[in-house]
Amino acid sequence: MFPFIWEWVWDAGHYIFFGGMWYVLIILTVGLNWCIYKALKDTKEGKGSGQGHH
Amino acid sequence: MDSALIPEGVERCSLKRFTLGLVIPAALVIWGLYAAYLCWFKGLNQTNMNDSYGFALWIWADLAVIAVGGGAFFTGFLRYVVGKDELKNIINFAVIVGFCCYCSAMLILAIDIGQPLRGWFIFWHANVHSMLTEVAFCLSLYLSVLAIEYLPLLLENRKIDQNPFWHNMGHRMHEIMAVFAATGAFLSCFHQGSLGGVTGVLYGRPFGLREGIFIWPWTFFLYTWSAAACGPCFTMFCCKITEKLTGKRLVKDNVYDLLAKISGWMLGTYIVAKIADTLWWAVVTVPKTGFSFMQFYNNSNNYHGLWILILELVVCGIVPAAILLKKEWRQNSRLFMVAVTLAVFGVCLNRWVMVMQPMAMPVMTFDQWVLYFPSWQEWATTILPVAGGILVIALSYRYLPVFPQERELNPVEKS
Fold first, then answer.
1. Per residue in B121-133, pLDDT tens?
2. Searching chain B, which residue's CA lies closest to the CA of residue A44?
3. Which has the closest alpha carbon to B351: B69, B122, B49, B32?
4. Which of B16, B119, B186, B408 is the most buried (most CB within 10 A)?
């Protein structure tokens, strides 16, 4: 999972498997954090007091 | 008592009636948890698995729920990536059904690995030459995606939505849902495919062995294709059952019609590809391995006869595809239910045939057909996630605005 784990090898298999896994994890983490940041900003600006405008 | 939590403008049964309705699923969950405890505490000797059935009821259930849970990724793909706007009226329900299916798959795997405390080894010490490692990665990540897709719906609960932060959070998540849906479709394509690839590469097991392209056997593509075809059928099947139980129309007919038509095309093209794959396997692949096609079907006292192939390809393949493709037939509510039921049964049967039988099929002259009947612990732990899924769907329906068209289809008279 990480290069510091003893059986790690810099080969195509590791690039593909872990490249894909970290790529998806980064997308999900960035996406969620963007939502949290924007929601905090909106709340500070006083938005979202009503319901059901989705 | 719980009326403050129920979405505005819709009617729900009394809390007492609702609670009574959940008694049986809750009892099944408790029974399943006890069986799971036995499997974890005493080990896999609690099962009836044997050398011929190392892939047993659990792995079949796992693959079946993943296949029928494909409705979430494919409906999400159609809604957010392709832009089929009508599907916004069923996407919430598809996500809930998919979430239940993938939770079920993870729970079953957690019991099946026997040593759940070492479950993280598959990430930490990954075998990058195994299709099952890819399945484990994609499955876990896709479950996270489904949880993310389910979250905005949870945040729309009447009480939670009153909190400005959660309200804004739900709103912002809706804005970038296409990113999550596209990620989910990418993950789902790969793990559905790799599950099919597992049997396709078993060259010592000619019943499952398939030729293919580059490193991928044809089963890789057929699994993804069948999940995309039959997953939406399962979503519509569950939706119709929910309508029957609640006595309400929850989704308009044009939404069913669109999804059924797309499923029909997917199922029709899939079944053509599946028949071509079976013919090529029977005529070219099997003889190369030293077997004849009929050897796989006539030495098991009819337990695994030609009938199973006809049932899978014709009754549960061609018939539902034809019904879903013809407009007059799919708009007939009885024929529609027959088609989606057969499609769902067919994909589960396909997983049974392709996962259980390749391992059990005798390949040596001294091999015998071994039969297998799951222990009660295996049944209980397989029923556990189904009962759990019923609880999740029931609670979601009661407390969340799952169906955007419900208010319009079932106007409530104000007293």
1. 889 989 888 888 8
2. B165
3. B69
4. B186
d(CA B190, CA B139) in angstroms, rounded, equals 9
For the record, the structure tokens of B218 come out as 């044809």
β partners of residue B216: B213
Q: A24 and B156 in contact by Cβ < 8 A?
A: no
A35 to chain B nearest CA, in Å? Answer: 5
Classify residue B391 by its DSSP letter: H
**A12: closest chain B residue by CA:** B128
Query: To the nearest whole angstrom, how far is the Cα of B11 from the nearest Cα of chain A?
Result: 18
A-chain residue closest to B146, CA distance: A28
Dihedral over Cα of A30, B157, B67, B224: its sign: negative
A19 Cβ under 8 Å from any chain B Cβ: no
Alpha carbons B415 and B409: distance in angstroms, whole number: 19
Residue the block writes with tokens 């997308």: A27
Opening angle at CA B350, ends B200 and B338, nearest 5: 155
How far, in Å, are B84, B208, B257, B320, B352 from residue B315 at the CA level?
Answer: 30, 21, 22, 8, 16
Note whether B263 and B225 are within 8 A (CB).
no
Closest CB to A35 among B124, B169, B401: B169
Cross-chain CB nearest to A17 (options B133, B179, B183):
B133
Cβ pairs A/B, distance under 8 A: 87
Amino acid (1-letter code) at residue B49:
M
Residue given tokens 């799951």 in the structure block: B374
Cβ atoms B165, A43 nearer than 8 A: yes
Cβ within 8 Å, pair B172-A16: no
Smallest CA–CA distance from B8 into chain A, residue: A52
Q: Which of B196, B97, B4, B121 is nearest to B403 (CA)?
A: B97
* Mean predicted confidence (pLDDT) in A2-19: 88
| Cβ neighbours around B23 below 10 Å, total | 9
| Tens-place pLDDT, residues B268-301 | 999 999 999 999 999 999 999 999 899 888 877 7
User: How far is B256 from B254, CA to CA, in rounded Å?
Assistant: 5
Give the distance from residue B95's alpha carbon to the nearest chain A alpha carbon, in angstroms.
17
